[in-house]
Design a protein that fits this description.
Distance between the termini: 100 Å
Strand content: under 5%
Mean pLDDT: 89
Shape: rod-shaped
Largest sheet: 2 strands, antiparallel
Order of helices and strands: EEHHHHHHH
Oligomer: single chain
Low-confidence stretches: none
Number of strands: 2
Helix content: over 70%
Amino acid sequence: MATCKLCGRSGFFLSTNQSGLCKNCDAIISIEIQSRVRVVIESINLVNKSKTLETRLSRCDVILENANALKRFEQIGIPTTNPPPSRIAEDFASVRKRIVLESLRGELEEGKRKADVALTVKSKMTILSKVLIRIRQFAPHFPSREDAISIEKEVAALITEHQLAGYLSEARRVEFKGNQKGALSHYYDALYLLRHDDVDDERQAQTINSIEIKIRELS
């Protein structure tokens, strides 16, 4: 005696297809399954082809939504996708996190290249600050909090590096012109920056020491 896997109806005169569905359920469910499978396939292609982080993440969300919806059919033995929806949902939960890290790593490398050729300290810092904002925006989506903190510190250190170079360059410029008071002000700015950034002072000890020597000389 046949029993429909979905509605549970059974009887000697009830027939089911190879998926274990009665005629009524098959007519309804097959449309939903086909629709969701099509959306999953289209979204996977977009995730693989798109270069925009927001697009890739939104499509991962679409995949997860539809794969999780298809899992209820998988659980009662109705075929849907290959691999099964539960595997797709598991895989793309991980893919989503990896995409965030890889994309923002790419944005950071591009930001570094642009900052290296930028003509002014201000433009260098603007470029890297935009990257930092992006990293903080997507921090909750990183594979781990440690990954987010690590890349954020890396960008912050680069910003500090360019800002420090700007202070020291300006200090040397005005000192060369005989403006010791102006040079002293820039050296103090540089020292303050190093003393209050997120980098361990021990790693910057040599630079800090050389700046303190210049301050004593000019004072």
